[in-house]
Amino acid sequence: MKRRDLLASFPFTGYSVYVFAGQQSSPSAPAPDRFQVLAPPQRTPAAEIHEPNMTLVDLDTDVLVAGGGLAGVCAAIAAARHGARVVLLQDRSRLGGNSSSEVKMHVVGANCHKGRPGWREGGLIEELRLEDAVRNPQRSWEMWDLLLYDKVVSEPNITLLLETTLFRAEVLDGRIRSVHARCDKTEHLYRIRAPLFVDATGDSRLALEAGAELRTGREARSEFGESLAPETADTETLGSSILFTSRDYGRPMPFTPPAWARKVTREHLRFRKITSWEYGYWWVEWGGHLDTIRDNERIRFELLAIALGVWDYIKNSGDHPSSANWALDWIGMMTGKRGSRRVLGDHILTQHDLMRGTFDDAVAIGGWPMDDHPPGGFDRPDLPPNTVLRPPEVYNIPLRSLYSRNVANLMMAGRNISATHAAFTSTRVMATCACIGQAVGTAAALCLRERLAPRELARDSGRVKRLQQILLRDDQTLRGVRNEDELDLARRAQVDASSQEPHAPASHVIDGWVRDIPGREIHQWQGRMQQGGAWIELRWQKPVKLSEVQITFDTGFQRELTLSSSESIHKGIIRAAQPETVRDYVLLAGEKELARVSGNYQRLRRHRFEPVETDRLRLRITATNGSDLARVFEIRCYA
Question: What is the separation of C-alpha 363 from the centre of its chain, rounded to a whole number of angstroms?
Answer without folding.
Answer: 14
